[in-house]
Amino acid sequence: MKAVIKVGGKQYIVAEKQTLLVDRQDEATKELDLEPLMVFDDKTITVGKPTVKGAKVTAKVLAEVMGDKSQIGKFQAKKRVKTITGHRQKYTQIEITKIAA
What we know:
Layout: E1 2-7, E2 10-15, E3 19-23, E4 31-34, E5 38-40, E6 45-47, E7 56-76, E8 81-100
Antiparallel strand pairs: 1-2, 1-5, 3-8, 4-7, 5-6, 7-8
């Protein structure tokens, strides 16, 4: 069984025992209870308006991780100005433990 969930303004297609990176959640959070937007398997599809009533997806928070570093460079010709800054986005790694329809 698979489900479409919404976390942090983004939608993900998930299955049980799947791990994924989502936008950073509160540090005190150990478990997430999410309402799916759609639940489906090989034979049936249930679409919610806006969520599926009675369905629930539970996820366990594994760790706080940082993404790849991206560098931003600014250069002004003939002024001898060169600025390089970097950024690393913080993510929360979660594991989908159960999808109950």
